[in-house]
Design a protein that fits this description.
202 residues; alpha/beta; two-stranded antiparallel sheet; 7 helices; globular
Length: 202
């Protein structure tokens, strides 16, 4: 992997969303191919050489918390999770500042098919662009996480508001396209059911 990772970089997985489109169930506890949804991306990215691996959760006793900790993640509690996704972005950026991180990669915890290869492509682009540019993923012609943010954007990330999170920054990001379904996030029970009917290698 690019030397960007392991050079003071932090990986943060926001996992404190309210799952409003998923009904009453916490979607991260729903089973996808026999494993809780909240563990898929975390497991894939756990071995990548970031200096800090963190999960932004709404509850320190979340059903996935034991699994996250076993994978080596620090579970950071977002006490304002009910106010929207931006609070998790702010929480991640604040923790990055405390840890004196040189960069922050944000990947959604409900992206079960994210690949380490794509993260490597993002890291390489971040290095090639001088580590002063936001690097984001592009799926279906729109900018989205996972995304690398340099430290000079941490102040902006600590001030984002509403459910849009860091979307404003992504509008000017350098984009790394993805042509498969590895950026799929599981937002509804219907999507989960459809994915569970598919054969996957895990």
């Amino acid at each position: 992997m690019s030397e960007v990772a392991g050079n003071g970089t932090m990986l943060a997985l926001p996992a404190a969303g309210q799952s409003r489109r998923f009904g009453d169930q916490d979607k991260l506890t729903a089973l996808l191919h026999g494993k809780m949804l909240g563990l898929h991306a975390a497991e894939t990215l756990a071995t990548l050489p970031f200096d800090h691996h963190v999960i932004i959760a709404s509850d320190p006793d979340h059903p996935c918390a034991a699994g996250w900790k076993e994978l080596g993640y620090d579970v950071i509690v977002n006490e304002h999770a009910a106010e929207g996704q931006s609070t998790s972005v702010r929480c991640a950026a604040q923790h990055a500042v405390v840890c004196d991180a040189s960069a922050l990669l944000i990947c959604l915890a409900d992206m079960p098919y994210i690949t380490s290869e794509h993260i490597q492509r993002l890291a390489q682009a971040f290095q090639d662009c001088g580590q002063d540019t936001v690097i984001a993923s592009s799926g279906h012609s729109k900018a989205m996480p996972p995304a690398f943010f340099p430290s000079n954007q941490f102040a902006f990330l600590q001030d984002v508001q509403g459910d849009q999170g860091a979307r404003k920054l992504l509008q000017t990001a350098h984009l790394i396209p993805v042509t498969d379904d590895s950026l799929l996030d599981i937002d509804t029970p219907e999507i989960l059911a459809m994915e569970n009917r598919k054969e996957r290698d895990f």
